[in-house]
Amino acid sequence: MSLTDTVALVTGGASGIGRAAAIALAARGARVIVTDIDTQGGGETVAAIGAAARFMPHDVAEEPEWQAVIASIRDSEGRLDTLVNNAGIGSGMLVTDMPLEMWNRQLAINLTGVFLGCKHAIPLIRAGGRGGSIVNISSVAGLQGSAGLAGYCATKGGVRLMTKAIAKECAAAKDGIRVNSVHPGIIDTPIWSKINEGGLDSVADAFSTPGANTLNADLIAASGTPLGHAGAPEDIANGIVFLAGPESRYMTGSELVIDGGWTA
């Protein structure tokens, strides 16, 4: 699968799925712009890729920063072919205990950030005149509810349905832009590494327990993943590359679930 002569933007590219996606896209020939609020991690991702990548600091919840990133890509690359809306956060708390600030922050990053990405990237992709692909990272939490994760589930479910709506808008415009969502299960990333060696009772605990920092594969296996282990960021990156490339040319508004059987 070749992505030679394409330009990709990956948000939240400093670690985890975003880093793996940026590396995988570049390995197949894409020039990659990596963005994140974590400048050190973003720089490490770019260093791992080499000359085919560059980093920009970027808070996806802020519209002026989206405008600056897209303008920079327009000026330096002249086009954009692939957008990977990956940046996200997770916080676990019962809805009766959740501060409004926590709710709003999840909405701002996980949902509004994806909206802003689509809003500002689509005109630049369209201007290239050869179509493109938008890949929005949702979650299995966007397909089914989990107690203690009302905010996360709400935002990731919102990403799922917003993806479908925007896919129909682009299809109606006949601009050749496909828009799909990816739904990871439990993946060995900084968010999920909050599940520690001692074991936590629930997914919500994994988000809310201070200091937990080691992925416990046995706990993951017991949590309901039929394949019995956590996935790797590269497992999700492979799906992202597929959706970015021509092999998925007949897919739009679709959900690519990569969860080890969690939702089976």
TrEMBL record:
Keywords: Oxidoreductase. GO terms for molecular function: oxidoreductase activity, acting on the CH-OH group of donors, NAD or NADP as acceptor. The keyword Oxidoreductase applies. PROSITE patterns: ADH_SHORT. The keyword NAD does not apply. Residues 6-189 form the Ketoreductase domain. It holds the Pfam family adh_short_C2. Belongs to the short-chain dehydrogenases/reductases (SDR) family. PANTHER family: 3-OXOACYL-[ACYL-CARRIER-PROTEIN] REDUCTASE (PTHR42760:SF133), SHORT-CHAIN DEHYDROGENASES/REDUCTASES FAMILY MEMBER (PTHR42760). This is SDR family oxidoreductase. It comes from Sandaracinobacteroides saxicola.
